[in-house]
Every structure is written in C-alpha cells, then in structure tokens.
Amino acid sequence: MLYLGWPDKQAGYLIFGTVLVIIFGGLGLHLLKQFFTGKVLVKITAAGFYDHSRLSSTGKLVKWEKVVGLTELPVGVQGQVSVRLKDEANYLAALPVYKRLLVRPQLKLGQGPLNISLQNARFVTAAQLIKIMRIYRQGQK
After folding, report:
1. Are strands 48-51 and 42-44 parallel, antiparallel or unpaired?
2. Does the pLDDT at position 4 exceed 70?
3. In degrees rounded to 5, what are phi and psi of residue 80?
4. Cα separation of 29 and 8, whole Å?
5. Alpha helix (H) ranges present in the chain?
C-alpha cells in the first residue's frame, strides 16, 4: 500500500506548533529587548534634531534655522512638544501621503506639523525637552 500523507497526524501539529513558537518567541524576545534597552525618540545635535517618536516622524534632520517655535502640549502624563516651522507647506509636501494623512488632525487643531510624542519617554518631560532644545537652538544664533 502506498501512503503519501503525513506519517502521523500529530506530526503536522508538531511542525505547526514549532513554527509558531519560533515566530512568536522571536517577536517576544524583540519586544523584551526594546522594553529594556529603550528607543531613541529624539536625537538633538548642534545642527538640529532628528525625530523618531511616532509613525508620522520623518527621522530626517530638522535644522534649527527652520524652527520658529516650540510649545508644550499637555497630552497625557508626559505630553508632547509641538514644533512650528518657517515653511510648513514644504515640510508637508516632502512627507509621504500616509504621513500627511496622519498629520492632518493635528493641523486642524492648530498645532504644528511636527509633534514630538513623549509617551514612551522614561526620563524626560515635555518641559525638560523644550528647555534642552532651546539651549541647542540658541547656540546656533
């Protein structure tokens, strides 16, 4: 008799379970690593800053010369920092379509197109970040 199926019904379940353990185990390890090591939300340099705090962030350098104002938005415990730019239309035009759609609600609320979310920040508040950013910004003038 010729049998072309699985040698045992349990083998299929075993293979499927092993694949799931590998996938979700790897994902769990990645999440634990991110939880303990953290993530860089904002990188501040003498030339400007890089925003990596949310999905709508570009991750590109925003030069201090383009920044008009920094304001604190009291959202949640940590808050947000709203950054007003000299030429917001050019900034928005450079964003991909899906990021423009994500930014649209904050523009309707009268906020800047660039909001730095500190929801996941552990050791800094919005007021402290604004103070640090103003020090770097004044060093450029």
Report:
1. antiparallel
2. no
3. -135, 160
4. 32
5. 9-37, 88-94, 97-108, 126-140
Contact 52, 43 (CB under 8 A): yes
Cα–Cα distance between 13 and 84 in angstroms, integer? 56
The answer to whether 46 touches 139, Cβ cutoff 8 Å, is yes
Give the containing element (helix H, strand E) for 42: strand 42-44
pLDDT in tens, 84-114: 889 888 888 888 898 888 888 888 887 888 8
Distance (Å, whole) CA 92 – CA 112: 11
Count the Cβ atoms, other than its own, within 10 Å of residue 134: 12
Residues paired with residue 49 on neighbouring β-strands, in sequence order: 44, 62
Whole-structure pTM value: 0.69
What is the rounded distance in angstroms from the CA atom of residue 115 to the CA atom of residue 54? Answer: 9
Asked if 80 contacts 41 with a C-beta cutoff of 8 angstroms, the reply is no
Q: Which residue has tokens 């609320």?
A: 109
